[in-house]
Amino acid sequence: MDSIGKIGNSIIQHGSYNDRIYLMKLDPADMPSLLDEMDALAEREGYSKIFTKAPSSFRELFSDHDYLCEASIPRYYDGDDAVIMSKFLDDKRSINSLNDIHEDVIKTALSKERGLNSRLPSGYSIRKCGKQDIEQMAEVYQKTFDTYPFPIHDPEYLIKTMEDNVVYFGVFRDEKAVALSSAEIDFDNSAVEMTDFATLADFRGKGLSSHLLMRMAEEMKAMGIRTAFTIARASSYGMNIVFAKCGYEYCGRLVNNTNISGNIESMNIWHLDLGSD
What we know:
The chain is of the alpha+beta class. The chain contains seven helices and 13 strands. It has helices spanning 33-45, 59-64, 99-110, 134-144, 155-163, 208-222, 237-245, and strands at 3-7, 10-15, 20-25, 49-55, 68-77, 80-88, 124-128, 166-173, 176-186, 191-199, 227-233, 249-260, 263-273. Helix 3 (99-110) packs parallel to helix 7 (237-245). The longest helix is centred in the last third of the chain and has 15 residues, at 208-222. Residues 124-270 form the N-acetyltransferase domain.
């Protein structure tokens, strides 16, 4: 599993699992030397990609260091857009061999009518998860993903993130968790990533992810969070349709970005302004 650490006061995730560096949180005071330090780390470890989330005011500086803008999240930083800037250190990683499929996924998702067409099925309920749910949460994630960018199958990781900045939600049937998701909150910027969606195989096709997403948006809006975004598998018709139907806007694609279920996959970025009705 990749590790999380710091360069200066900026937070990065890196490792061979995703074969990349991810600049998760930039401290502007670390620029521009941070770019050289990430280059050195990538060369030392042999990584093939660096990708970053940063204020758009740094876009030109990243571009001057051979980064490309793959996506943007409107008004993420107190009115300033976040740009997802990526640097490919191996030409093969920059080639999206599934581009036609990914384009069809977006076309299909955007063609769907917005809004939920059904209620939560009878006998099911949605609520925030607590520490009493940890063991069955870990079990759901273990059954859903062979591999994942973060150790969400580990009960200790779930407890730690729950105590920090992550709110987990679950769909339950007879008090058994059958679908999960999480809201990873960036309190400094009043933003949240909607992520970690998982539904047990026997309970798919019931629209549970859509209901989770709508409930999450309600809760985050009540907390005063302004901006929601997600990073969804580019090849997944289902999840991209979920975000489109729930009012999210497509913001771009991260090519060959994330190791999920044993393969490096491209990811789509979707955004929702929680301040808008």
